[in-house]
Design goal:
With 53 residues, the chain is mainly α. The protein has one domain. It contains 3 helices and no strands. The chain is flat, with a radius of gyration of 17 Å.
């Protein structure tokens, strides 16, 4: 586990910037109306799976 944590510590700045870019992309897609289209596709895809117990 420690090597993975070291990798995260070394790349912390990149991860924060990547998270910011993803949040901006989600916000823009919500404003434009693409988010609903994408979530509709995801809902149809997920509905094909059965309940896992």
């Amino acid at each position: 586990l420690a090597p993975r944590l070291d990798w995260l510590k070394r790349h912390q700045s990149f991860m924060q910037k990547l998270g910011g870019v993803v949040m901006i992309a989600v916000g823009v897609s919500m404003l434009v109306g693409w988010w609903d289209l994408m979530m509709g596709v995801v809902r149809q895809w997920v509905a094909e799976f059965g309940t896992i117990l």
